[in-house]
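Tutorial handout. Part one gives the primary structure; part two gives the three-dimensional structure as tokens.
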Amino acid sequence: MSGRRLRAAVKQELQVAGGFRSLQVVVAGLSNVYTHYITTYEEYQVQRYEGASTIFGPHTLSAYVTRFTDLSRAIREDSVSSLDSGPEPPFFSESKLFNLLPAATVDKKPANTSFGQVLDQVYPVYRQGDIVSVTFVAGNPRHSGDIRDTTFMTVEKFDNNTKDWDVVHTDASWETRFHWLKGADRHSNATVQWFIPDHTPSGVYRIRHFGHYKVLKNFRPEIRAYDGQSGEFTVSASYYSTT
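Part two.
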């Protein structure tokens, strides 16, 4: 009901002078700030789950309608530049933030292994619809810091023309999973899974894992990067393919 009222108010304001006749107002629920629920005044009085979770009070929706109506009027009158930008949200720099989670300890690995080494290898052949799984000796993912622009893993396909490997999936892909398992004595493993889609082209593939581990050097912690890769494997058509 809140969405209906907001859409109706915006549409009414935009069509005041007869413009925007074919207008359809859509509320997109994504934003860079989470404001919790926004219920109607009437629903707030009942105080069920959503009403009780409207944390800015019973007139929250009215405030939104007012601001969006003002914005709609400015769009209609082509005067958006005259709008007051309003207060800027506070900037929480690292000096103002605190974290009660203790730092991760140093990483260890089994004897005669190295970080990134494969423990459970892939099979040589898979078909569309299968699940590829490979396990690596790993460090704590927390030691990788801010990796928003990178990835813990890649699925790569060999290009016969360029004789190089092309990345086809990362840990941001729906078809992949990255599982980190903390073991005893500060040992840990990382298992990468690839759920092969039905439309995957046939060819030669491999899986790579990227991470960091912590060691003590001269009694001071040091973060080191590592990577590992699976053996090459072939993906062929599905068992149920008719081609």
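Part three, for discussion. Residues 204 and 234 are 5 Å apart (CA to CA). Strands lie at 118-120, 125-127, 131-137, 153-159, 164-170, 176-182, 188-195, 203-217, 220-229, 233-236.
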